[in-house]
Design brief:
It is a single chain. By secondary structure, the protein is an alpha+beta fold. It has helices at about 1-25, 40-45, 75-85, 145-160, 190-200, and strands at about 30, 65, 70, 90, 115, 120-125, 165-170, 175-180, 185. The chain has one domain (about 30-200). It has five helices and nine strands. The longest helix is centred in the first third of the chain and has 23 residues, at about 1-25. The chain starts with a helix and ends in a 10-residue tail after the last helix.
């Protein structure tokens, strides 16, 4: 029965190596100092100096952006609240390094309904004005932008869109930025593996545990 002990030993060693790799694996992204979790007003968010773009923590609104793929920029204060819930936000800006074409058009921003924190029903946002949102567009009609949006949409759907939002961000300085609570990663070329690693590591790891 020595062979059984030998096999058992190999299995145990393999398991320990696997556990060690999982615990010690590199953390995707760059850690950003925590700026708190205080609930504030829209004007407070607009005047606050965040330590990254997009923010990874800080004062935010009582409402949050729900999981989804958006074609308009979303409220800064609500996105931060989503991060607090453990969301991963995939921000993009087609106008940084992707090529324009002659059919470039600015998008009309139609703000979506807000959802009050810790409630399941929506609330109208007709009177919601957010000065933190740029008036420029992060989307153009170039083939490069269409491909990027398609790739991000397919990847987000692959990850089941749980605690995950894809949003255009006009003031983003790179083509893509990934944010989770206290972590950021930004780059220009679409990289499915890099995005998935960030999502798998950071999703549902925010300071506030919620169902969604």
């Amino acid at each position: 029965m020595n062979w059984w002990k030998w096999v058992t030993g190999i299995v145990i060693i393999g398991a320990l190596v696997g556990i060690g790799w999982y615990v010690m694996r590199p953390v995707p992204g760059t850690r950003i100092p925590d700026q708190g979790r205080k609930h504030v007003t829209v004007s407070d968010v607009a005047s606050y100096q965040f330590n990254s773009n997009p923010p990874t923590s800080g004062p935010h609104l009582e409402t949050w952006v729900k999981a989804g793929i958006y074609d308009t920029p979303q409220s800064e204060g609500e996105l931060i609240h989503s991060l607090e819930h453990g969301y991963v936000i995939v921000s993009f800006n087609c106008n940084v390094h992707l090529t324009f074409n002659s059919n470039f058009k600015l998008q009309t921003f139609n703000f979506l309904r807000n959802v009050y924190a810790h409630e399941e029903t929506g609330s109208p946002s007709a009177d919601f004005i957010d000065p933190t949102i740029s008036t420029q567009s992060a989307i153009n009609e170039s083939d490069g932008c269409k491909t990027l949006v398609k790739n991000l949409t397919e990847l987000a759907n692959k990850k089941k869109l749980w605690k995950l939002a894809v949003v255009p961000r006009p003031n983003l300085e790179t083509t893509i930025a990934l944010t989770a609570w206290n972590y950021i990663d930004h780059f220009d070329a679409f990289d499915a593996g890099r995005i998935e690693r960030f999502i798998d590591y950071h999703r549902d790891q925010g300071p506030e545990k919620t169902m969604e």
